[in-house]
Amino acid sequence: FLMQTSEMLQKICVRNLVRKYCRGLSAERKVQLQQKVVTSAVFSGKKEGYLESLSQPFLETRLKENDLNPKVLQLIRGENIKYVTPVVKYDRNGFKARERLLVLTQSSAYVVEMAKIKQKIEYSTLKGISTSNLSDGIVVIHVPEDNKQKGDVILQCEHIFETVTKLCILANKQSVVKVVKGSLRFRVGSGKEGTMVFTVGPEPQVFKDKTGQLTVV
Fold first, then answer.
1. N or C: which end of the chain has fewer CB within 10 A?
2. What positions does the domain TH1 occupy (predicted)?
3. CA distance linking residue 82 with residue 29, whole number of Å
């Protein structure tokens, strides 16, 4: 009986300490923890670099709304901008690297070039988000096969854990994130598909190999 009482008191004590800790959290700290929980669910034990990312707090955004071109702001007016980060976008055919911005609003993801919106993906239509199990920063945003979309979006992000976490939380599609090994398929457009191969090498690089595949080292 004394053992049972002791165990009950310990549980009550722990519960009170947790409640006290949670009540003392700032709103910013609470958001951080909520985001890190999602990151853990998506990447823990699956992608290299995850453990090192634990001590790095996520920023609210990497670029501010004021950093966006006024023409872009005009085009997405009425939407609440939540997160902006520089990315490298790889063309779906020749795989040429192009500097872009990824803009996440409350309802859509935009790939932006200076004053132009190159692609818009509404979260309601987003089919999947893929990354590799290695330490690269590649993420593929999978879109539906329709006339509105040119094909899947291939991006390289410096802050991969932060960017993917923000995207899947805003889209409310944590379950569609996949961490793949070896290779993945992506849609080029017009019913065509491409292949991306992930491998390990002495230095990071992304290139089109002799077979026409995009190789990520």
1. N
2. 47-217
3. 17
Residue 208 is predicted with a pLDDT of: 87
3-state SS assignment for residue 120: strand
β 177-180/108-113 pair status: unpaired
* Banded pLDDT at 145 (limits 50, 70, 90): confident
16 or 145, which is more confident: 145
Q: What is the CATH number of domain 28-181?
A: 2.30.29.30
What are the angstrom distances between the C-alpha of 48 and each of 9, 12, 54, 179, 201?
A: 41, 38, 12, 11, 14
Count CA atoms closer than 13 A to 28's CA, side-chain side. Answer: 4
**Pairwise pLDDT comparison (63 vs 77), residue with the higher score:** 63
Torsion region of 55: left, alpha or beta (phi above 0 gives left; psi -120 to 50 gives alpha):
alpha
The pLDDT tens digits for 116-131 are 999 999 999 999 999 9
Per domain, the residue ranges of the chain are 28-181
DSSP string, 47-104: STTHHHHTTSPPPS-SS-GGGS-HHHHHHTTTS-EEEEEEEEEE-SSS--EEEEEEEE
Structure-token pair, residue 82: 């939540």
Torsion angles phi and psi, residue 163, rounded to 5:
-65, -45
- Take residue 41 and report the two structure tokens written for it: 């669910």
